[in-house]
Hints:
Elements (H helix, E strand, L loop, with lengths): L7 E6 L1 H19 L7 E7 L3 H9 L5 E9 L12 E4 L9 E9 L3 H11 L5 E10 L11 E6 L4 E2 L15 E4 L1 H4 L2
Parallel strand pairs: 2-3, 2-5, 5-6, 6-7
Antiparallel strand pairs: 1-9, 3-4, 8-9
Amino acid sequence: MYSMRDDLTEVVYTEKKIAARVEELGFQITDDFKDKVKDGIVAITVLRGAITFSTDLCRCIDLPMEADFMQLSSYGDGHKSSGSVKIKKDVSSSITGKHVLVIEDIYDTGNSMQFLTNFLQSKNPKSISTAVLLRKDVENQIPFDIDYLAFHCPNEFIVGYGLDYAQKYRNLPYIGILKPEIYLS
């Protein structure tokens, strides 16, 4: 009988380890912002990969919160970034004068995060902080200080917990390395 687990070489982060780390980040964000925000923060989830991480993280933040979404495109259905970032969906409400928390699934080349933070900065928020599930250290990565990082991950093709390959594997409750024969075929 087939299982999506069969398509992985290994599980890198278990469901239990992810849940514990996300809870820690939620507590840290709450503590860091509790004296700064009376009206709360605007959590901007980068669709689609960060939706699972964002949902769990936001439930662990004990502050008033507005939710908004953006969608960027740099991968398509491929396994490598095209290097070109495009906005497919912009935020729905004004972030001017507000504290913004960008929630992203993975930081690899840095192109998307650099593009996104520059774009959001042009909307004059009071502050921009970043929460990222995974940081993959790759060659020629754009340096960037992530405010709230859950995990470093190997420079492999990672899926699960919202991350996908060709829109599949997002529903895995853990994070694993996809077998190369799956995405190179």
